[in-house]
Amino acid sequence: MARQIAIYGKGGIGKSTTTQNTVAALAESGKKIMVVGCDPKADSTRLLLHGLCQKTVLDTLRDEGDDIDLDEILKTGFKGTRCVESGGPEPGVGCAGRGIITSINLLESMGAYTPELDYVFYDV
Predict the structure, then answer these.
(1) pTM of the model
(2) Quick one: residue 59, left, alpha or beta (phi over 0 = left, psi -120 to 50 = alpha)?
(3) Could you tell me which of 9, 4, 1 has the C-alpha nearest to residue 124?
(4) DSSP 72
(5) What is the pLDDT of residues 60-110, one digit of tens each?
(6) Is 93 buried (19+), middle (13-18) or exposed (0-12) by CB count in 10 A?
(7) Which residues contact 108 (CB under 8 A, 6 or more apart)?
(8) Residue 65, SS3 per DSSP
């Protein structure tokens, strides 16, 4: 079972930078890791994806409906790190926490949490 770690705190204190650097160091040492970005800005995995933006789970669900494949929302980044961005609701509509729960439930149902994972990081 993967160790699950949430990095959270006030905005602008370096959570995403800390998460991505920690994940990169662990990946460099051979650990298998998945990162779930929980910020509506969807920038939690950008460095691990070599600067690329990733479409969020919620945007994919809005655009494609419920019939999506795991590879549409999970991208492979630095040293095989699995990267997912949950996204958030439209500005002024809904609760960001609900989007995170929806994303995690979808990842679980699609089999993203595989036994070979050593760590799952949540950048909240």
Answers:
(1) 0.93
(2) alpha
(3) 9
(4) G
(5) 999 999 899 999 999 999 999 999 999 876 666 666 677 899 999 999 999
(6) exposed
(7) none
(8) coil
Q: Which run of H or E residues covers position 122?
A: strand 119-123
Give CA–CA dist 5/39, Å, rounded. 15
Give phi and psi for 94, each to the nearest 5: 80, -175
Q: What tokens were used for 57?
A: 């789970």
Query: Rounded to 5 degrees, what are φ and ψ at 76?
Result: -95, 130
Residue 103 neighbours by CB distance under 10 Å: 25
Give the C-alpha separation, 3 to 15, whole Å: 18
Q: Chain centroid to CA 87: how far?
A: 9
The structural domains of the chain, ordered by start, are 3-123 (3.40.50.300)
